[in-house]
């Protein structure tokens, strides 16, 4: 049901029955390693290209989630997925493997919450019993497509971010035990004229701020309602900007409940510049770490604000600025 | 004229960019320059040693020793690229490792490795010069212009 301007409140409370997170070698060295269902020591995952490796990541996340839910592939009515590859091949090829009716999405790194939002809408309207939402990214595949060859010696500035090698998947159902999706705010595209692809954090921060303010405005609730508000992949730079920008707009989010998945996923000693980014960042941290904390009872209500930079290598070369988007999903778990 | 020039940032965008700029860590330009200077110099020094090595040990003159010396530097750079070390050195050294021969070899080798998965013809062959190509195009063109100027001056001065 529409609430306010751009927020849906799901009266039937779709349940996140099971989630899975799969990561690569760099994520295995990070502080959240134990929250992954599966970690790979090899960036290639035994495949002969990085793109194929990303597909395997997503396939594994999806099959693990289905297994954990105690379901079969045939029980899933719809599969919603997005990734960063051209023509979203990782998602489409995974859908080929799963052989489940499929919607391919593109919201760059916001795809995780975009798919969860639309999946929840499908469940809420009783249009399906089970929906699978997935997202993936691969560091080397993203570097290859968006930047330079991985072994090319170019210097990155301190505002650059490290694309997460990982995939996350969630299964939504109409009933059962598990965290419930209670509301979602669909973001607008915001472009503040930033055109440096090595500075995604500050490009995406205004989109996150726009969606967060819209969420609290539409639902008329204070930020304290949440135990945790996590942005997707702003990194250290973008997160600081977003926090300050929110203060400037008169929406103060207490520091102890405000965090960013891109900061959480890697430790300070890892050479990731400003932090993690990519579709897999918010997906693995949310579906792994954050939901695990909810299941343990440490968190009751969280807001995930996945941020995405909607650029392409061509648009950047044509001197276009970077349009950005953020989708917020509110998840509650009362055990 | 395209409308590119007309496209200006709005006031809100300008305000935001000033706001974000104040919160971004700056590139350590001075440090980068110093590092680039020393690493670049070090690579050139190494190249000089290789050249002298050929002159002292083999039948090369200062002029002819250049070619084998360059070949050695290229091989070294390609080996370091293949071992996955060159990009880490470059992150630290910045423009220092961009010194023509080694940086050029790295740009070609890295692109060739990267696109191996698309096969030898469309992948390796088609993409090897994706970064180095512009260097070749503009390098050759600049050399042509310089040669043209030199010749013109020689003719004018000679008459």
The CATH homologous superfamily of the largest domain in chain A corresponds to: Stage V sporulation protein AD
**Percent of residues in β-strands of chain B:** under 5%
Structural class of chain A comes to alpha/beta
What proportion of the residues of chain A is helical, as a percent range?
25-40%
The spatial strand order of the largest sheet of chain A comes to 1-2-10-15-14-11-12
Biggest interface goes to: A-B, 34 and 42 residues
Could you please describe the fold and organization of this structure?
The complex is a heterodimer of chains A (335) and B (159). With 335 residues, chain A is of the alpha/beta class. Chain A has two domains: 2-173, Peroxisomal Thiolase, Chain A, domain 1; 180-332, Peroxisomal Thiolase, Chain A, domain 1. In chain A, 34% of the residues lie in helices and 23% in strands. A seven-stranded mixed β-sheet of chain A has the order 1-2-10-15-14-11-12, with helices on both faces. Chain A has a six-stranded mixed β-sheet with strand order 4-3-9-7-5-6, sandwiched between helices. Chain A has a two-stranded parallel sheet with strand order 8-13. In chain A, strand 1 (2-3) and strand 2 (7-9) form a beta hairpin. Chain B has helices at residues 11-21, 29-57, 66-82, 86-93, 100-114, 120-127, 132-158. The mean pLDDT of chain B is 90. At the A-B interface, helix 6 and helix 7 of A face helix 1, helix 4 and helix 5 of B.
């Amino acid at each position: 049901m529409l609430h306010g301007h751009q927020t849906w409140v799901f009266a039937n409370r779709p349940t996140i029955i099971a989630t899975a997170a799969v990561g690569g070698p760099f994520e295995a060295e990070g502080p959240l390693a134990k929250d992954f269902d599966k970690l790979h020591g090899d960036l290639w995952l035994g495949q002969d290209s990085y793109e194929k490796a990303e597909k395997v990541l997503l396939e594994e996340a999806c099959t693990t989630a289905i297994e954990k839910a105690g379901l079969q592939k045939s029980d899933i009515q719809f599969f919603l997925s997005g990734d960063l590859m051209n023509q979203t091949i990782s998602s489409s090829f995974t859908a080929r493997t799963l052989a489940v009716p499929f919607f391919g999405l593109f919201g760059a790194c916001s795809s995780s919450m975009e798919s969860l939002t639309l999946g929840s809408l499908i469940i809420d309207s009783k249009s399906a019993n089970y929906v699978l939402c997935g997202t993936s990214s691969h560091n080397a595949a993203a570097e290859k497509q968006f930047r330079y060859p991985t072994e090319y010696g170019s210097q990155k500035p301190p505002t650059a971010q490290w694309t997460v090698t990982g995939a996350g998947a969630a299964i939504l159902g109409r009933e059962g035990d598990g965290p419930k999706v209670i509301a979602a705010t669909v973001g607008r595209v915001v472009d503040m004229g930033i055109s440096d692809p090595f500075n995604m954090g500050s490009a995406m921060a205004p989109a996150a701020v726009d969606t967060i303010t819209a969420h609290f405005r539409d639902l008329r609730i204070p930020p304290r309602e949440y135990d945790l508000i996590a942005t997707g992949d702003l990194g250290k730079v973008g997160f600081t900007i977003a926090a300050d920008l929110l203060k400037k707009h008169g929406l103060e989010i207490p520091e102890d409940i405000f965090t960013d998945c891109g900061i959480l996923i890697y430790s300070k000693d890892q050479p990731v510049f400003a932090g993690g980014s990519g579709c897999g960042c918010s997906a693995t941290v949310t579906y792994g770490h954050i939901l695990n904390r909810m299941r343990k009872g440490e968190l009751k209500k969280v807001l995930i604000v996945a941020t995405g930079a909607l650029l392409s290598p061509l648009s950047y070369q044509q001197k276009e600025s970077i349009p950005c988007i953020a989708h917020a999903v509110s998840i509650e778990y009362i055990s | 004229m395209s409308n590119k020039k007309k496209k200006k940032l709005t006031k809100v965008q300008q305000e935001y960019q000033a706001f974000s700029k104040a919160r971004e860590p700056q590139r350590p330009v001075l440090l980068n320059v110093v590092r680039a200077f020393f690493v670049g110099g070090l690579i050139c020094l190494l190249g000089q040693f290789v050249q002298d090595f050929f002159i002292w040990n083999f039948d090369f003159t200062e002029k002819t020793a250049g070619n084998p010396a360059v070949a050695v530097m290229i091989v070294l750079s390609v080996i370091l690229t293949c071992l996955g070390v060159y990009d880490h050195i470059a992150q630290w050294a910045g423009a220092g490792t961009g010194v023509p021969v080694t940086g050029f070899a790295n740009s070609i080798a890295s692109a060739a490795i990267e696109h191996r998965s698309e096969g030898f013809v469309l992948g390796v062959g088609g993409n090897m010069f994706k970064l180095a190509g512009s260097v070749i195009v503009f390098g050759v063109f600049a050399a042509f212009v310089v040669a043209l100027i030199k010749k013109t001056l020689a003719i004018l001065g000679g008459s």
